[in-house]
Amino acid sequence: MGNVVKGKSFAFAVRIVNLYKHLCEKKKEFVLSKQLLRSGTAIGALAREAEQAESKADFVHKMAIALKEANETEYWLELLHVTKYLETKEFSSIQEDVAELLKLLTSIINTSKQRMAK
User: Are the C-beta atoms of 112 and 60 separated by less than 8 Å?
Assistant: First the structure.
């Protein structure tokens, strides 16, 4: 897994926490932002958990859950954008980060599965 996903997912979680604070304080939005906070911070937590996986299958499973959380996070971001809680500039920036995490996690899972099949 390396430090790439660990670093990127942590930096993303920091952005999510700051976005959550912004949405609550400035936009007075509390419901959708709470969902975003939960899923957006879970990505890095699951990647960290995967570091201590008991087996390769357990590693893949934990990374797959992180991928699901990243996908859910993208959903909440899109919803916040369409409902005008997020401006296009804010959305585009953070959406690029989640898209990168989705690609990275997918690649890690696929590579790990290929290695398990050998």
Answer: yes
